[in-house]
Amino acid sequence: MGRADDERIGFGAAIGLGALVLATFVAVTTEIVPVGLLPQMSRAFSVSEAVTGLLVTVYAALVAVLAIPLTRLTTRLPRKPLLLGTIALYSVGNLVIALAPSFAVLCAGRAIGGIAHALFFSLSSAYAAALVPPRIQGRALAIAASGASIGYVLGVPLVTSIGAALDWRAAFGALAIGGVLAALVTAAALPAATAAEEAARRPRGPRRALIGAAVVNAVAFFGHYALYTYVSTLLLRAAVPEPAIGPALFLFGATGVVGLWLAGLVIDRRPRAGFLGALVLGAVCVAALLVLQTSTAGTVTAVAAWVVGFGAIPVFCTAACLRARALTPDLSAAVNNSASNAGIGLGAAVGGAVLAGAGLPSVVALAAVAFAVAALLAIMLRDAFPARVAHG
Fold first, then answer.
1. Residue 66: which region, alpha, beta or left (left: phi > 0; alpha: psi -120 to 50)?
2. How many CB atoms lie within 10 A of CB 173?
3. Helix orientation angle between 296-323 and 245-266, rounded to the nearest 10 degrees
4. What rounded mean pLDDT belongs to the chain?
5. What are the residue ranges in the chain where pLDDT is below 70?
6. Three-state DSSP class for 74?
7. How far is CA 347 from CA 60, 97, 142, 209, in A?
């Protein structure tokens, strides 16, 4: 009976997780939406799209650099008010962007969002894990992470559509309002928690497990974003019509949700097998693109299956970092957050350099190798990715 109770998410925890889903939805939509509005923003300030695209790179760099020090500096502050502050900071950043009179101010607004992001995911991941018994923390993390998937599938297309129908300033204004609403819902729905209470729930563990999980995380994100950043180019080379790129991206976002759902089924029972399966699926499907690059249907199918695998990877990495129990939960999540964004930034930069110098097939090969290396590392690092989860 006790074990059955430990495998249920109570009503209060479910409400709290729902609030985290909403907040994560706003956070990820804020992070990604400039990609869909780059042409408008570039024209507004007479800046090239390549330069405007740095808004995404700089954002990721800020998160990678600031996640750990900011989390460490705020470790003694109450968790709930701090989390609410990060959500509010997203709204401030988006409002600054919406009202920006110059590109420099636009960059400042983006920097504000990056600072919020550096803290938000460290706090929200630890909070999600603290809401439920240890036996089902992986499931709780998957539920909270669904907000990110919904952001990709619905948030970015929705806000981009607002930008197309009105203008890019209206789109960021809508995001600012969304952040305020998310903060209000989170304030009402999320129970209070303190860093001390969270820390008391975990015994100490070896730091090598946390470092190993973070390294695998960075390598996997590197491989994904080295190629996915240029997925539109990949699709166009495979003769996918330009008007069909948007629907294709929506499809890929939906398959990522499927991957996250599958991860939620196994993350608390067979985390190692599930994680290795996701990495191998990504490696095989990306490698298949080398053969299928002239096939429209084959390319779309391979990318969709690759994103199923990647959709599962982030939550496995987050859970592995938290379960290492080497640091407090929020600091462990900060290490994970920093590793992810380092992989995103480096992957996009290196992928772009390889694309310019050696062509698209070389980028595909680079991504496939990175996924394979991540899988090999996960096989070797058994303490970071154990076959079963210890709940003691």
1. alpha
2. 18
3. 40
4. 87
5. 1-7, 35-36, 49-50, 53, 193-205, 390-392
6. coil
7. 11, 26, 24, 23
How far is residue 63's CA from residue 53's CA, in Å, rounded to a whole number?
16
For residues 236 and 152, give the distance between their C-alpha atoms in angstroms, rounded to a whole number: 21
Rounded to whole angstroms, how far apart are CA atoms 125 and 142?
A: 10
267 in Cβ contact with 319 (< 8 Å) = yes
Angle of CA points 42, 46, 47, to nearest 5°: 55
- Residue 192 phi, psi (nearest 5): -70, 150
- C-alpha 330/C-alpha 121 separation (Å) is 9
Tens of pLDDT, residues 6-37: 567 788 888 999 999 999 999 989 888 876 67
pLDDT tens-digit readout, 243-270: 787 788 788 888 999 999 999 999 998 9
Residue 175 structure tokens: 């995001």
* Alpha carbon 212 to its chain's center: 19
- Token pair 């609030």: residue: 19
Alpha carbons 150 and 142: distance in angstroms, whole number: 12
- Alpha-carbon span 142 to 160, nearest angstrom: 26
Convert 320-365 into a string of H (helix), E (strand) and C (coil).
HHHHCCCCCHHHHHHHHHHHHHHHHHHHHHHHHHHHHHHCHHHHHH
Residue with token string 């109570």: 10
What pLDDT digit, counting tens, does each position of 102-111 carry? 999 999 999 9
